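Reviewers of the previous submission asked for a worked example of the structure-prediction workflow described in the proposal, so we include one complete record here. The input consisted solely of the amino acid sequence. No template or homolog information was supplied to the procedure at any stage.
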Amino acid sequence: MRMDDGSRPTWSIGAVARQVGLPVKVVRHWSDAGVVAPVGRTAGGYRRYDTAGVARLHLARTLRDLGMGLGEIRAALDREDGLTEVAAAHIEALEAQIRRLRTRQAVLRTVTRRTTHEGLALMTRTAHMSPDERRELVHDFLTDALGDLDVPHFREGLLAAGADLPDDPTDEQVEAWLELGELVAGGELRAAMRRIAEYAARQGHGARDSAAADEMRALTDLWTARVRTAMRAGTAADSPAADRVVAEIVAAWLPSRANPEPAVTSDGAPARRLLHDQLTAATEPAVERFWQLLCVLGGRPAPAGIAGAGQWLTTALRANPAPGARDARLEALYTDDTDPWPGGVLDAFARVQDTVGTLVRATAPDRFGLPTPCEDWTVRDLLDHLVWENIIWGGLAQGTPPTDGHTDDHLGDDHIAAFETAAARARDAFRQPDLLDRSFGPAPGRRVVEQLLVELLVHGWDLATALGHGRDLVPDIARAALPVVRDIYGDLPRTAGGSIAPVQSTSEHAPALDQVAAFLGRRVPEGRPS
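From that input alone, the workflow returned the following structure tokens.
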């Protein structure tokens, strides 16, 4: 460094290059290109740079590292407001780079969770769209999905929601946008949106005033709260117990403006059919997720999801299509006093319970994490359910059925002791004098025993399959069980909210218990059981 004639410090090109961290030839090139100008030359013709020049070179290097070209760098540095304006440009460029990096991070994070090669290509394309392109994607999707349906208010509401996408998204909004791109590209959302629009067109839904909207929200809060209470209590949507829940909800729905048929004023098949159709349209899971993502993108709180409660209620409406329908169906079955079980229902129950007990004792804790044929259940979940089933039906036989505890941990630290204790109590309860002929509502006691027999038989198959054991359990009882389960469960809806999955295929020559399991929605492994 040396002082020029004005007592300002100046540096040679080599010294400047070392300060800035650039090669001398780059500093020379940038000087020639006008990015920085020397303040003078030595007697030998060598360039000298002052403090302002060094500062320009530092900023120029930063802007270059951020991806700006030489022309853009020179233009930014030559603004009239000087270094303050250059610093602002630096900040702007840095923020743009941060946004790009955040988007790339979100894409990669999403890839690690759920995407394919095709999904990665889609996300890469959508991640780099401009705000206008993002809006156009959503608008084009909605326009295509709705087609020429006469639903102007429905259409306008969707398009207005889809227009509010952020220009400068947060991490959560970036991920929401990527998921929205996947959802829009898939076929499920398009079909679901079309079904909702078609329902709206059939009902002739027009603009709604604020009072109607408030009423709809209150009604939604009511039925979702009632359904969630039933779900927490373990009430199956396709059971007779669900009929009471349905009746309460229908009673609230009938006088509301949600009821599209004023002539339908009482609970019955027409009312339940109308409510079922309405809920089926309103609780599409793909559409619910679409709305939640739009809320995230618009910076609005996403509403609580109602799809799960909606699936429960639509299943309950299908299983109980009129008041008392499910009870009447079961009562007709209960009048048949034939005992189809080898040795009688009590002896068959004891044999099945012993067989399942052997499997429970053979289950080591290190197998608890294994998956089972019951969707989303591990071996530990299944063992817990086996204990709970003994508690429920044994308690019912004793006249003290549990009123809660469905979601409790019933295994504790000793799964074998838990099962054997609950099993012994159920067996003792079933051995009470005259238990088989005692009335439990419309059902005789033998049907209570039969219910637990079937539960243990089928879940014993689940456990044997999960553990890799022979699954052809008690063949003579399994053969007797096949017509029984077809009678009891044959007319139940095989829906997402129900207890039973759709029937699976299996050979008519398969062991009887494989056929029972397939009828109740299990996928039967290939090959005969050992």
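Strands lie at 2-3, 9-12, 40-41, 47-49, 439-440, 443-444. We consider this example representative of the routine output the project will generate in years two and three.
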